[in-house]
Amino acid sequence: MAAVIQLEKLTKTYGSRRGLVELSLDIEGGEVFGYLGPNGAGKSTTIRLLLDLIRPTSGRATVLGLDPRADGVTLRRQVGYLPGDFTVDGQQRVDECLTFLANLRGGVPRPRITELMTRLGLEPGARIRSLSKGNRQKVGLVQAFMHEPNLLILDEPTSGLDPLVQQEFLRLVTEARAGGQTVFMSSHIMGEVEAVADRVGIIREGRLITVDTVARLRERSVRKVRLTLREPADEAAFRGLPGVEDLTVRGNEVRCTIAGSPDPLVKAAARHTVTDLLCEEPDLEELFFDYYSAAGQEGRNRATA
Asked: How many other β-carbons are positioned within 10 Å of the β-carbon of residue 277?
């Protein structure tokens, strides 16, 4: 499908401070794209540039085939946006707020709004000012999804949500993709991105480090493994296996890290009776560390070349 978001060397600086550096990226129609990075990496800056909330220093952005600056009104009609800090009139009740926002969009069927409030566990009569952070976030999600836009742009969408509501949010994203909508969501939580994203981009200090599927990112990362055998382990049987590092054998317990395919380790363990197996998938911070370290080393290599 044609690209819904196209970024060409998009750059944003704030005086001497870096915001975004020559970001080039294509997001295809109908895909869920996870945009990962810690606070300050440039995720929100990217999203604000997409919606013309701020202007780029240089470079170009096209969203739904439109220029965010020249075609801003037309573009925003087709976008559902949840900012990182969702704020509305605290005096309004939930249903009043959502009705007001729906009317600004030219009207949204009331059953659609009711369905979303029910699914997310929102009390229609509650005053906005009385809501917790998580419940205010639910209001933000309803207003982003309710008009079934062509493109959903969600900045840290599960912030403040409890685990059950997070799962309902992921179902909403899955349904949106099934309906042909495109979803661009920033996050620092690998689990939620892994569950729904087709592709992932990792950003570091305003620069895009990599774009890939979550599965391939994990294949290239390091996992921690602990094996417990019925009998004492033979260290020689595990040492030197492809991808196995940091090997420690104590009695009937084997600990190591493994990069790439676990097949050689599994075959070596199969010669014993395995009573317990623990494999720790790398969390997001570890993936960041791996890619940040690699990117930093590459930068140092270029500087000394």
From this structure: 13
